[in-house]
Records
---
Amino acid sequence: MWAYFINLAVLISINAILAVTLNFILGYAGIFSIAHALFFGVGAYTATFVAMKFGAGFLTATAAGMLLAALISLALALPALRVRGEYFVAASLGLQMLAVTIFTEWKSVTGGIGGLTNIPPARLFGFAVTQPEHFLLLSLLALGLIVLVIRALVRSSFGRSLKAIRDDETAAWAYGKNVAIIKTTAVVVSSALAAVAGSLYAFYLSFINVESFVLDTSIQLMAMVIIGGTATLLGPLIGTVLILLLPAALSYLPYLPVTEIGSIQQIVYGLAMVLLMIYRPGGLWGFQDAPPSSKSGTA
Amino acid sequence: MSEAGEILLQATGVAKTFGGLKAVDDVSFSLRSGIITTLVGPNGAGKTTLFNLMTGHLIPDRGEVTWLGQSILGLPHWKIARLGIGRSFQDLKLFANMTVAENIETVTERGSWLWQPGGRPARQARREKLEAVLAATGLAPKRNARAVDLAYAERKFLSLARIMASGARLWLLDEPASGLDPGSYQSFLALLRQQVREGVTICIIEHNLDIVQGISDRIAFLDQGRLLAEGDPKTILSDPALAAIYFGERAV
């Protein structure tokens, strides 16, 4: 039981990193990317490659993943962000599909469909992190650092510029914001930080394959952010916990055949999204961050 | 009435065609510092297009646009904005989900990165500017309200607050007074006059002739993309030919 909880907690913190970094562009900058799983994958494959080929430790392997994710996202963002939002959705979808093909076909690096096994444990300052409890600590530490970085960014002038661009791009240009550069930077930061989750994931499972980095993952991450509450710091964390606990919770319901849990889960997601759209368009946590109008007069 | 000074912005022979429509047709037009110039004309006369051409939102097919004698043709519009040309929009284009204070703060920040240049003195100056702008526009009690939650007149004042906070030397205002109640209109007018005294130059697009009369130091009359007349308000407003065009009778 204990091992089960630790495992769930590690997976939650890794997914939370992805949700928080996706929210940075989706919630604060209004950039709808459905390629977030791709950067998760780039982080995982790169860290694995560097660790297995060169015996790199956790920090070096993670840094390599971040760098590659940053470069790839730059290549995506530079052309795609010059056009309006809808095109970015299409461009990111195309890139996500392309990435899945590469992850599947580039067998010498990614191991193809079978993936890569026997990934060595994460080495940190000379110690191998083999205990699940220690790994949980490492993931929580990474999550904490990333939340702090995102928090600093969104509360700075950079964050205000992002929100201004999200709310009205024309006005942002007209008030001297170099919209293209600001959006590109946001995408690069978000992708590089998502790669950290990939590195953690690879070292934790010691096995990765393309299944974890497909379009479904990107969409599930989007659901975490939207259900939790976009443009809030806590929303994506809440969304991650809810979505990852849902299958576990369903499996405790009596009279529910285990084989049907997958499809029931989909029904619950769908229902939750529709109900949220009607009653809580800002997400579960959404209303907290945006000051409600009733409070405005007292400030 | 204020005295006109040097030429800030000058458009020379600018033209812009959309498909077969000549939206702006060979217009030469200058904005002199220290006064309020009004652009009048019927719907579709090309007033907003002229604004877009002067701020780099559109690039003219022909002609030249200069700021303080230097050509700004082809500069990206965010760079033109940083020269000191601010504009408001007919549909306001506020940063809807940001608070009133954030709407103002973000335009006072020149850099878009983590830290602003200038350190503590600059931060203090930005804070003072925010307070001054909030006070001048009467928005201080609403500082933590989101722009989308404001009443109509408040939104109009926020759009002015934003341009004020940007430190722009020239304000191009697209129908800033439309829909204001008489009380708000009076404070709006006082605000503009105060700004002009403090050295701001203003160009307004306006439909309502009462407002035009009350506010203008100079009037430019546009119709079908052409600048028909330019001069002091008395001359322009008493011209029967222009009145006929304005009120819908086509002049010969």
---
Amino acid sequence: MPARILPLAITAYTATCAAARGLDAISEAVRERRSGLRENDLADHPLACFIGRVAVLEETRLPAAFAHHDARNNRLAWLGLNQDGFLDTARALRDRYGAGRIALVLGTSTSSIGETETAYRNLDADGRFAPEQRRAVHQPHSLGMFVQDVLGLDGPCLSIATACSSSAKVFASAERLLRAGIVDAAIVGGVDTLCGSVLYGFNSLGLVAPQACRPFDIARCGLSLGEAAGFAILERGGGANAHVDKSTPCLVGYGESSDAHHMSAPHPHGLGAQLAIEDALSRAGIGPADVDYINLHGTATPQNDAVEAALITRLFPLTALASSTKGWTGHTLGAAGIVEAVMTLLALERGLVPGTLNLETPDPACGPQIMIDNRERAISFALSNSFGFGGNNCCLAFARGQAA
Amino acid sequence: MSIDVIIEGIGVWAPALPGWQASQDVLTGKAEPQAAGSARPAASLLAPAERRRAPDSVLFALEVAQQAAQMAARDGRTLRGVFASDHGDLAINDYLCATLTQAPEQLSPTRFHNSVHNAPAGYWAIATGCMASTTALSAGDYTFAAGLLEAALLARSEDASVLFVACDLPACGPLADVVSCRTPFAVALVMSPQRDRGGAALRLVSQAAPSCPALAPEPALLHAVHSDNPVARSLPLLVALARGEGQTFTLQAGPRLYLELEISPWLN
């Protein structure tokens, strides 16, 4: 088991999803149990299903200086950076540490492939990309290049793409860069957008629900796809930085593992997921009994939820709280890790623990941990689970400031 | 800050570079590169059924991964994995985008799940039974350097052996208008935090400005063949490893970021 890590202070964070933009609006949507899911109204991808679409993206435009990065995914990144004053905070961070001393580690599953799909729909008479599409956006690192350009950062910059665990794993990579002293701070995050590849791809696997997703419900029949952006700033805490307040929430652990089982189905006993959870607890120096809340992967596919519910029932005390927040956001794929990290941090900081939207009759595999209703409760330690295709698992452990 | 690891195993598969053992004379200039197209790699680690389903990105990655693990005499199950690729599987992207314009409802579920950037990592974990962490990343033109840094850091911070694989494949279809890659190139390194077997010590130093020159592009023919593939930026490191001599050079790791690589002679 890995050794305990020094907690890293999360000195700023933000998220934008179908349910709301920015922290206060997300808290309000959670409190009011207001879902961001709607009937699919994407003109280019008329699949009968529900989606978590960020409504203003069609009208969002990048500033002229960054127009060559234009793609739905980078527009969502821009929208996300402009919530909660994150852009100004990130630029102040650059002034404090220097552009070369800050890492940028972002997660995405599909990056700008939606723009590549658009280019294919508009090929010229010779079957070639139209001139306006001959840009650098047609690659997985499009997101990293755009945000690096916007923030003017010169440190290590990578896009992590491990499907639905992508923007959870960014915290692990950033912790290693900070621990080794390669950088003094890290900006992490993730952005993923709705596109034809994922809508029809998940449909081809029979995993898309015709109605809004119902995580852990006995009648669940698949996921609802969504889109989201989220960002966070990691700095050394524990007295290493005088400007970091003791009440700042912390990343205290993470665990990463592989299922070694199947490309698109979870290990039937959740062994890989269990390894990731145990690894995260070990790095945090806590045990299952210390965990107050677990934000579950909870996609609402029959297999994921059965395996994850059984795992939670097996590993955690009956008093632990657990929920899936995908009823608010949809499954935002490569952004799920950061969005659910933000949901978890909000629960830690504001004492409002989200329940599971659209869950009516829990699957028999669910223990009492999995909640339907929200709870008002002060919590100290919380986990967030993210599991992806290829059997790629990540679990993050967070603590309320004074608890770390 | 410097990061020190021991490179214990090497794998390579590209035109004129069909495996590490067969490539060293070409890399050191003792033999002429046979620039004719290479065959698809055997990737014999995969079960026949999986080999049929697996896309080229998986075959190339698993071929070099297996070479490097064998040379290092490390069981694949014990290795953490870092898989780097600028573009992933361009043939699958071409298939997805073309199919979506014609018959989206007929998209192949297998090709969809093979389209994830971590498909090679997933197939590797399944083929070896590896439950350790695997990651997949992209950093544009700097993908090889970014992956090398991530892998070396992982080996040091986890005190564990790491498999690093970098692979990019030719563009096809309309995507070839915006992606310059025309030849395949796959490379793998197995690295450990301490020396307990043969290998070459590698010291990485991340810098805002280069402290020493990049290595001259040689052998020239290899560079000419592979200049459009971002993973071929590994060639100076491969040449240094093939020579088995000490060498220090710079690799660009970002628009304004550099990695100094100090490689020691190979010790058995």
---
Amino acid sequence: MIEETLVLFQNIRNPSYDKSLKGYKKVGGFKALKKALKMKPEELVEVVKASGLRGRGGAGFPTGLKWSFMAKNTGKPSYLICNADESEPGTCKDRELMLKDPHHFLEGMMIGCYAINCKHGYIYVRGEYFPSIKSLNEAIDELYAAGLLGENALGKGKRLDLTVHTGAGAYICGEESALLDSLEGKRGHPRVKPPFPAVSGFNACPTTVNNVETLTCLPFIVNEGAEAFKDFGPENNAGTHLVSLSGHVEKPGVYEVRMDVTLKQIIYDLGGGIRGGKALKGVIPGGASSPVLTAKEIDVEYSFDALGKAGTMMGSAAVMVFDEDTDVVKLLHRITRFFNHESCGQCTPCREGTHWARLIVQDFLKGNGNERKMKRLHRVGGNMMGTTVCALGDAAAMPITSFVTKFPEEFEKYYTQAAA
Amino acid sequence: MLSRYPIKRNALLPLLHLAQQENGGWLSEESIKYVAEICEVSETHVEGVISFYTMYKLKKPGKYHLQICTCVPCCLVGGEELLEHTESKLGIHAGSTGDDGMFSIEEMECIGACSFAPAIIVNEDYHEKVNPESMDQLITDLRNTP
């Protein structure tokens, strides 16, 4: 029986925790920032590199390495932008941090700003997150009032400002370059890379985009050291992370775990197993875009590397569980509808592919499926992989090909029954 | 708000939110023109931005805008049924507003409350683990709110 390992959620899990600045300081808040300010920014980058912290937004890119790419001596300001657009279906972890422990996250953000010499950081929160936006704005007001932000935030005469920026409803704005376009006041279209944001990002200035959870790891890393962070979890998968568990489990919720626990343990030990004593049919292990796993495949370590080896991905750590009664074709139809709606329309393979994938899956539901259309689904998926500016094409293709490959009988059922 | 950004155009999204809020939940031609002037961009640019994002409305929504999520996790635990129930209860379809202007319904893609599904947003407030019965109660309560 596994239990949670509390680093990011240590305050949130405390029922008497007071999330105000006073309450956060009472549990040792802002000690890490003080410690960080005694180091040189370059030293801080090295500490984060050594900690093995990998981005929690979906790609799992090493955070310290990302910071080290920032162009220097350009004569332009540097920016740290926090990606709080959390819109991958199944993911609801960042909102927990922003809502219930905003200062913990903001301290991480301030440490990040210091590390990359950012004087004004922006937090791009998805527009629907009204409660999180309010929570962050209240916390930021407290920080300005206490002098922790503003004129002398990072030492005498070293100014730091933070601004909460609200998105307006577009999944694609979680993609970092689309987010930057959106932040600049445009339609959120992903950019062709290179140049990468570290060279030319927000308003063509050097920019790093980090996820909320990634930044919230920083106070622990600075306080306890890189080794302490590495001690959680297996090699190359350092630290604890937040898993958003949803679907047909007894106890859905956001759980904090080490990366050496298995997907099965997360579903059965933390999630209490399948709702109503039903049997498990499958799991979407890392957000709607990750390839699906069957019930037989869930005894896998829930880490970046192990899931990659298992042919899927951890993505934003959103685990969606479905039971034996679930109609897999309907489920895939819902997923294809999502990507069809959210394709920005910039690249033909994605704009057309997501549209046709939805229509073909719909054909099965209407009793017009056949073997040829199974193959066509495969082909449509294949044609989107790697052929677009951003990863949305891949994200839309992976569920299609994996569902058709792993649950062929569910699709066959539709046309053999219709024929009978 | 403009002072928080290096260039005026950067404030476009938050300013549109503000304009929409002050105009009763939708963007009129005048508000678009006004925001374009402040941000020093063309009205066409602003209209292009508005059409890209789902949260900007060109029609007045109901006093209570019911945003019902039917995306994957909500769909697994009854989000679509909840939407159908609400549509038949209020006699309006997703994307429309009732004649009395009290309620409008919008079908949502993932609203990020997946572990607390099915979830809905009413104006700016989240309601979680909603079922048809609690939806009926909510509608009654909203109707009775002065």
